[in-house]
Amino acid sequence: MVRNKNEYYQVKRKGTKMKAIVCIKYGPPEVLQIKEVEKPTPKDNEVLIEIHASAVTVSDCIVRSGKVNILLCIPMRIFVGFRRPRRSILGLELAGEIEEIGKDIKRFKKGDRVFAFTGRKFGTYAEYTCLSEDGLFMPDDGLVAVKPINASYEEAASVPSRGTLALYFIRKGNIQKGQKVLIYGASGGVGTFAVQLAKYFGAEVTGVCSTTNLELVKSLGADTVIDYTKEDFTNRGELYDLIFNAVGKRKAKLQCKKALTPNGKHVTVDDGSPKLHIEDLLLLKELVEAGKIKPVIDRRYPLEQIAEAHRYVEKGHKKGNVVITVEHDNKP
Is the pTM for the entire model greater than 0.85? Predict the structure, then answer.
């Protein structure tokens, strides 16, 4: 457990060492500990990224805790590790600067400011990580692109996993201009992107969230907002062409059926089907630069307060995204 900033900065780099947050076993946020580990060296087809910002997502918290639905327990342990995460440095998304490139790299150069989704490789709770440039969502590859020019490192770091998930499911719903779309969980990490993307594709958007987040969801472009603490959207008599559950199965498909048009679709963020591609990240970059979507950041935490960030995310009340800033104490 990282107790304070002084303890954090007592970890000094020696030679090729770096600071990282290591998950020593499955459990509560306190299993995340500051360690001095080897700084990675890029392979011929990899870039070495100096990380300036990362993010904490619900997915990160699930991996750290090891707690999933009993039907998913064995598949998850096979995927992540049985007694503890086999990739001990967690974290799925980042923004930073390329410090070094392998000899076969063609798309990037030293100094490029990038954002990335690391996939099964994890590794963003650290000062550095290496990723392949080829952009394939494979077991040890990630998605890397030059970050939006008008986004800060913190804003860019919140886009790769939540933004690509939102884009995937909005596309899966095959929405058409003028159709009615309802986003359940519209104020969360995926939901805030989903509202903006649905508006970009020309839908009439209804957002469902709690009382305190109504104004936020309106500001993202929702035509209608529903306070789930006061009203059940399935009992309003409104019919939607797409219902996107952006928080998981709190609203089962059966419950939502009566709120769908005859040919309407219901999609949920935890159906396990996403296939992510570099084109998705590049489109999100373009949309951020064009002002069509804007990352929503709730809280920022320094890397040494990663446990506190996990505790906050696990409460389930965050607005948009929680980001982690990474300071490099060896630099002027």
Answer: yes
